[in-house]
Amino acid sequence: MKKIFLSPGGLEVSVLALGTAQYGTGISEEEAFRQMDLYTERGGNFLDTALVYGDWGCAERGCSERVIGRWLSSRKKSSQVVISTKGCHPPLEDMSESRVNADAVRKDVRLSLKNLGCDRIDLYFLHRDDPKRPVGEILEALEEEVSRGNIRYYGCSNWSLSRVKEAADYAAAHGLQGFSYNQIMFTLAEVDERVPGETQMLVLDREYYQYHKETQLGLMSFMCQAGGYFTKKGVGASGFKKSGTDVSGKKK
After folding, report:
1. pTM for this model (two decimals)
2. Please, what CATH class does the domain formed by 3-231 belong to?
3. Which InterPro entries does this one have (predicted)?
């Protein structure tokens, strides 16, 4: 599989990352292991997860991360795979409650390290933003985790362009590493920004894309396949996969 650098001098990863949101919930651990085995056998080396993945179906936080951690331990792959994870997501029962603060960064980073069974996270994203909180406070908390050796690079997800620019200015003025990467929704299909139950997800638009080209800020996209839309099977009128089917459209 082709490898690319996410940003100049940054992480070298396979051009296709493996999303793991359903590991341990919609996708069994056995099937998750099979997928990761197949992906790495084909040259893939980039797994994307988040602390919140699985909270909708597991009693303990970090279901997807723990499945990945057990696979890494079982296959002795820790040094061969790049892991990106995300933290500071609001609780699913109250999405209006912000968790983007220094205390949540510290707690979530440590829990993700434990779940994944690793000493350092390659790429750590803030899953959301809190526009009311100064960017300096947030960046300083992330920088502390870099200094402690807990994370290598950090980035943002679902941050507005104006906030990303503000963060870049603060990092430059204070000699910080700053955001190395941005993870944002983008797909080859025409994007419907009205995600059911979501008000905080942002879509890559032309202005945002141009900013990435000019600054070379690393870019990762999620929902690239629109939840299986391009299979043309198992997709309901809303464009989302029908309940009770896999991505091929077959009944589970």
Report:
1. 0.85
2. alpha beta
3. AKR_Detox_Biosynth, NAD(P)_OxRdtase_dom_sf, NADP_OxRdtase_dom
